[in-house]
Specification:
single chain, alpha/beta, about 40% helix, 8 strands, about 15% strand, eight-stranded parallel β-sheet, about 270 residues
């Protein structure tokens, strides 16, 4: 069984001391490729560096998370545009809107989001999107740009069925994380995840965040890791009434097509 983690924050400081082991553990569990999320200018540079270090195994995105939108400027846009010319950088983002915490003013978030969508149009690469408590503004901006974009994934989807249907109507992909394994917050996803077409479903850990709460046996660390993607895949498969093998085959094929990833063997680092 081969799986692809389409969103993991391996540039996070919690991985600084043992990243080779983290990647090896993931590969041992069948997670053959991972897309490292770039969520800031510096983080995007580091994500590309990791992709250089583990060619064919790690890939990168390049973008600025809405939490940091107030820091986005013309120099940032230039750095991202240069990174996005690299073949190992497979998507623009993480970008979008987050009104749940409002770490950056909403006008700044919208401006940074629009600018990054323009970058995606320019480079022709998919967009890796973030939306939380901002669906109305987010969908309005996305509708404006969607005809010019190649592909788009709403990553770490946690919203309502109605929001999901809005994104599917725009021919977007949906990224499902361990949120679906959370009995407190993610139970609603189990009720409609089966409605996502197989060619629009992607899976991810969002490590080090969102470790599956139903993981058994429980891990000793609170840090989420790509090695637990099979657990998420199994939960999603059960909700969709398919085998884990079928779910793995479908989501892996979908991820390779979406990001343009090559085939890969599960081999040790």
């Amino acid at each position: 069984m081969e799986l692809i983690d389409i969103g993991c924050n391996l540039t996070h400081e919690s991985f600084d001391r043992d990243l080779p082991e983290v990647i090896a553990n993931a590969q041992a569990q069948g997670v053959v490729q991972m897309v490292v999320t770039g969520a800031s200018e510096a983080g995007s540079v580091k994500a590309r560096e990791l992709a250089d270090r583990w060619p064919g195994v790690l890939f990168a995105t390049a973008g600025v998370h809405p939490h940091l939108a107030s820091e986005f400027n013309s120099d940032t846009a230039s750095v991202l545009a240069e990174l996005q010319q690299d073949d190992k950088v497979v998507a623009v983002g993480e970008c979008g809107l987050d009104y749940f915490r409002d770490f950056s003013p909403r006008p700044a978030q919208r401006k940074a989001f629009e600018r990054q969508l323009e970058l995606a149009v320019s480079c022709g690469k998919p967009v890796f999107l973030h939306q939380r408590e901002a669906h109305e503004d987010f969908i309005a901006i996305l509708r404006e740009f969607r005809p010019q974009l190649t592909q788009a994934v709403v990553h770490c989807f946690t919203d309502t069925r109605e929001a999901m249907l809005d994104y599917l109507a725009l021919d977007c992909h949906i990224g499902i994380t361990g949120w679906i394994c959370d009995e407190r917050r993610g139970h609603h996803l189990k009720e409609f995840v089966q409605e996502i077409p197989a060619d629009r479903l992607l899976i991810e850990t969002d490590a080090p965040y969102l470790k599956p709460r139903n993981l058994r046996p429980k891990a000793r660390t609170h840090r989420n890791e790509p090695q637990w993607l099979p657990w998420i895949a199994g939960t999603v498969a059960a909700c969709r009434h398919v085998s884990p093998l079928q779910l793995a085959a479908e989501t892996t094929a979908c991820a390779r097509h979406f990001f343009g990833l090559p085939d890969a063997a599960c081999r040790p680092v």
